Structures are given as structure tokens and as C-alpha cells.
UniProtKB/TrEMBL annotation:
InterPro entries: Arg_deiminase. Belongs to the arginine deiminase family. The keyword Cell wall biogenesis/degradation does not apply. This is Arginine deiminase. SUPFAM superfamilies: Pentein (SSF55909).
Length: 406
């Protein structure tokens, strides 16, 4: 089952990890959704149906689809993995010794699918059947969470990203997402698909405080030909980029990292919400953000892990050089300035390329989809009225594990 290799953003996609959102969304309410990084509450059933269309669209394109809930369930079948996850996610410092122990005892007896479901989707005090002698139960309301839901797990792109022959298991910037990383650490270490396979872990496999060196996969674009493009957003810091770059160079997996500075705001959460790679010489961009004067650096290095940084001029020129193409074709978000802003908010630029010139995107972004069509790009459209409210499109919702280079 080897072949963990992602050589580009546009080569034939072969295997992908996605997450069908269920329990976590049913725990979203108007009073907690902001804290859980959602702008709104979603219709759970509808979001699930839309996600199924997404999964089937991938399968129809010959892509093998792995589902996070299944992978986590199967990982829990490995006793060592189960013990580690219970210890890590239900830690004594998070809950106090007495209550942590009670919660672990309750969870340890559950069928593994239910346990995985609670770890991903959250567990409220009202759903916890035991009477604990700890003060925690008396101090909290029934609707408070023992385990907070992880609705953002839907966006499997961010928690880990595969770059050439290895994976970065990302230290996440926001507290609401940090527990996601442990699920991926366990899966890549113990799940039978990955255990004992030959791939590199560049970054983030140990559990420690990474302080300001955070990075999320939505900001990482594998350009191909040994180059990687990374956006420094609200959630990916220069410190995080330098760490990942150093490890890419150390393992001889990349020759160059191009880092670009992005506005630190919600609508431009990650680089892929404003720019994605569609065909070798073609990118989709949101021009309001991806402007000529965007600051850009080139990072290079060698097996020593030392990183040399040089400020570059126009980022498009840097990408053209890295890809060896004469001129990049930039397809901008469609419609007038109002429509473009609306469609960018609904992830018109956040498309998932399945093979060169074929992308999956939300059907509601009619103006942008029309522009793709005119440029000879095939759009396989999926419904996203509910899914899109989480502020993420098809690229955000997918973590490629195997993809051809260019």
C-alpha cells in the first residue's frame, strides 16, 4: 500500500482523505459556532448529503477515497494507539485526574466507532452517563462540552499536508483545531495503511508546544518540479514556513519554497481561498488579495537544514521561474466587484484539481465557473449551500495522499 507521494497540485489525483461531517455539526449552535470557527450553524443532514456528492464525484474520477472516521476507528483497533489517544485527548491536566480517569473509563468501553465519533464530534455533559466524584460535573451545565466538537475536521487539507515524499503533521494556530493534529499523528503512526511504510514526517509529529511556528495545509501548494508555494496567512507564520522549509531541504524533497504574505483576515483564511493551481500554466486568483505588490520571499537550502531567504519581486515571476513556464494565465474570480467578493467568500477560488484542467467546485459560483469554462477548464460542480458555510471549498475538504507530479 506504499506510494505516499504528492508531486503537484494538478497531476492525476489517486488517493485522498476526506471527512464526512456528522456529530460535530449537530453540536454546533448559534452560541458556540464562532468559538468553533464557524460563521453559522449548518443543516447536518444536508451537509452530509452534499459531502456524499463530493465523495462520489471523486470516486467517479478514479480517486480512492479514505474517510477520516473509518481511519480513526481502525486506528483505535490497535491497543497502543487507543491508549495513546485516550491519554492524549483526555489528559489529566485538561480535566483533572479524577474526571479524566472517569471519562477515559467510559470511553474505553465503547465500540471503537462510537469512540471515534465522540473524539471527532464532541461529548457534552448531558451525554456522559456516569456520576463522577470530581467537581467538574457540578461546575458545568449539561450543554457544556467535556470534549469539544471538531467541526473543522471537515477541512482535512489543513491538519496534515503531503509534500512530495512526506507529510507535515501541522501544529494548528487556533485552539479550536489543535486536538485534530493528534488524530492524524495516531493515524499516520498506527493505522495499517501507514504503519511501517516508508515516508518522511517533516514536521509536527512530536507533541510539544510549537509556540508561534504554526502552519496549516490550506496555505501549502505543491507546485511541482521541486517547488512549494506557501501563503503566510492568519494561521501560517513565517516561523512555521521556515521550519517546514528546513525539513523539506534536509530530506532533499524540495529545492525551493516561495512564501507570500497574505492579509490576516477571515475571508482570506488560507492561500487556497484566494489562489489555486488548475493547469500547469493556469491559476485561479482573487485579484483583491493576490495583488502585484504582495510581498514574496524565496527560501532555499540544503541537507544541513540551513535556510537562505531572499526577498523576491513579483510573485508571479517567481512562480513562472519555478515551474519553467513562459507566462502564467491567471483566471480571476468572476462577475463585478460585488459578485467576485461574494463568490470568493463562497470559495469560488478554492477548487480541487483532479487532473490538469479538471476541477471540482461549488455550483453556486456561477460567474467564476463560467470563466473557468471559457478558459477550457472543466468544472465538476457539487452543491455547497451548507458545506460552504464553514468557509471552505473542495480543496479545503480534501487531503491528497497520492498524486502524480508534473
Amino acid at each position: 500500500m506504499g506510494n505516499f507521494y504528492v508531486g503537484s497540485e494538478i497531476g492525476q489525483l489517486r488517493r485522498v482523505l476526506i471527512h464526512r461531517p456528522e456529530l460535530a455539526l449537530s453540536h454546533l449552535t448559534p452560541s458556540n459556532c464562532q468559538e468553533l470557527l464557524f460563521d453559522d450553524v449548518l443543516s447536518v443532514e444536508r451537509a452530509g448529503e452534499e459531502h456524499d456528492v463530493f465523495a462520489n464525484t471523486l470516486r467517479e474520477q478514479g480517486v480512492e477515497v479514505l474517510l477520516l472516521l473509518n481511519l480513526l476507528t481502525e486506528t483505535l483497533n490497535v491497543p497502543e494507539a487507543k491508549a495513546w489517544l485516550l491519554q492524549t485527548q483526555i489528559s489529566d491536566y485538561r480535566f483533572g485526574k479524577t474526571f479524566a480517569n472517569d471519562v477515559r473509563v467510559f470511553l474505553a468501553d465503547l465500540p471503537h466507532k462510537d469512540l471515534a465519533s465522540f473524539l471527532l464530534g464532541g461529548l457534552s455533559y448531558s451525554e456522559f452517563p456516569m456520576k463522577s466524584s470530581s467537581m467538574m460535573q457540578g461546575m458545568n451545565n449539561p450543554s457544556d462540552f467535556i470534549i469539544k466538537p471538531l467541526p473543522n475536521h471537515l477541512f482535512t487539507r489543513d491538519t496534515s499536508c503531503w509534500v512530495y515524499g512526506g507529510v507535515s503533521i501541522n501544529p494548528m494556530a487556533k485552539e479550536a483545531r489543535q486536538r485534530e493534529t493528534n488524530h492524524l499523528r495516531a493515524i499516520y503512526r498506527w493505522h495499517p495503511i501507514f504503519a511501517g511504510q516508508d515516508f518522511i514526517k517533516y514536521y509536527g509529529d512530536e507533541q510539544k508546544a510549537y509556540d508561534k511556528a504554526t502552519i496549516e495545509g490550506g496555505d501549502v501548494l505543491v507546485l511541482g518540479k521541486g517547488a512549494v508555494l506557501i501563503g503566510m496567512s492568519e494561521r501560517t507564520t513565517p516561523q512555521g514556513v521556515e521550519h517546514l522549509a528546513s525539513n523539506l531541504f534536509k530530506h532533499g524533497q524540495a529545492k525551493q519554497v516561495i512564501a507570500i504574505d497574505l492579509p490576516k483576515d477571515r475571508s482570506c483564511m488560507h492561500l487556497d481561498t484566494v489562489m489555486t493551481h488548475i493547469r500547469e500554466d493556469t491559476f485561479s486568483v482573487y485579484p483583491e488579495v493576490i495583488r502585484k505588490d504582495v510581498k514574496c520571499w524565496s527560501l532555499t537550502g540544503d541537507e544541513s537544514g540551513a535556510v537562505k531567504t531572499k526577498e523576491e519581486g513579483y510573485f508571479v515571476t517567481a512562480i513562472e521561474k519555478a515551474l519553467g513556464v513562459d507566462k502564467l494565465n491567471l483566471i480571476t474570480t468572476g462577475g463585478d466587484s460585488f459578485e467576485a467578493e461574494r463568490e470568493q467568500w463562497n470559495d469560488a477560488n478554492n477548487v480541487l484539481t483532479v487532473k490538469p484542467g479538471v476541477v471540482i467546485g461549488y455550483e453556486r459560483n456561477t460567474y467564476t465557473n463560467e470563466k473557468y469554462d471559457k478558459a477550457g477548464i472543466t468544472v465538476l460542480s457539487i452543491p455547497g449551500d451548507e458545506l460552504g458555510r464553514g468557509r471552505g471549498g473542495a480543496r479545503c475538504m480534501s487531503c491528497p495522499i497520492e498524486r502524480d507530479g508534473i
